[in-house]
């Protein structure tokens, strides 16, 4: 496998016209009915290293998932901060993509500045070295220019071309493997479902409201507080006496954005201090495409338990910074009570022998 390097650059703004064309692409008109053999869990971009703009990643996800479903080929693009001392080959080899490792896995290591594309053996005859090189080079081109948004756009386009090639090619069915328990549909431990997930309960959402209200009162604020689950669906809502009704909708959009984007709300890309016309147009287009459920205002915070985002909290009524403080206080109240409930009971010290 080949390993490529790129030169890092400053985080660039996404192009509004490109995003607008993606939002209006006919690909998004495809049926939502899942195709047989599709694996929705892996048809997305996981930007752990925060290399790309989250709004653009959301649009790219929709585009990529459509092509992935049509090709019946699981796809995962993942970024990591570091390889932690491993070679990129070792990091890629450890990644499993069901079923029977039939899929495409693209790994970008931010610190080491490396990228690799792995394709399941069954598809290597179609997505050969030429196609894999094209995907790598597409990502590298944008990153070398210091334009990560261009990198992910070009990379996904190159990947979609490969997926269309898979759709138009008749492949032999995968050979059954008795060595891997994952390949047997009737054996337990199959990857057909996701188990052991943490979910935010209604009582937990109410505890967040209580903690947030207490903090708001301490700060002398009258706010609206919304709590949603990991999919952005409303679980609990409270409007303090005297809070502005208009801020109620704002609180819900903040909570939804924090939960679905898996990060705090705020200007995008992060660090932006001067409004940019192109960026603002792009954000407006993305918000319109979402039905008005997204926002870049401060005050939305994801709820993280056991390494999983289980919901989001949005607050409206103060300044953006104050709203974020109130939201975090509500989450802290939940985590504190959760920690106390899970702590083992204290026992009397055992007597020692003389």
What does this structure look like?
With 354 residues, the chain is of the alpha+beta class. It has 2 domains: 4-173, Diaminopimelate Epimerase, Chain A, domain 1 (Roll), CATH 3.10.310; 202-339, 2-Layer Sandwich (Beta-Lactamase), CATH 3.30.450.150. It has helices at 16-23, 54-71, 88-93, 129-144, 148-167, 202-219, 246-261, 277-289, 320-342, and strands at residues 4-5, 44-47, 75-80, 104-109, 114-119, 224-229, 234-239, 300-305, 308-316. Strands 1-5-4-3-2 form a 5-stranded mixed beta sheet. The radius of gyration is 23 Å and the shape is elongated. It starts with a strand and ends in a 12-residue tail after the last helix. 40% of the residues are buried.
List keywords for this structure.
354 residues; alpha+beta; Diaminopimelate Epimerase, Chain A, domain 1; Beta-Lactamase; 5-stranded mixed beta sheet; 4-stranded antiparallel beta sheet; disordered C terminus
**Strands, count:** 9
Predict the CATH topology of the largest domain. Diaminopimelate Epimerase, Chain A, domain 1
CATH class label of the largest domain: Alpha Beta
Strand content: 5-15%
Through-space gap between termini:
67 Å
| Silhouette | elongated
Strand order, sheet with most strands:
1-5-4-3-2
* Oligomer category: single chain
DSSP helical segment count: 9
Largest sheet: 5 strands, mixed
Please name the CATH architecture of the largest domain.
Roll
Helical fraction equals 25-40%
- Radius of gyration (CA) equals 23 Å
Number of domains: 2
Question: What is the H/E string?
Answer: EHEHEHEEHHHEEHHEEH
Mean pLDDT over the full residue set: 76
Low-confidence runs (pLDDT<50, min 5 residues)? 1-43, 177-187, 350-354
Query: Strand pairing plus helix content: what structural class?
Result: alpha+beta
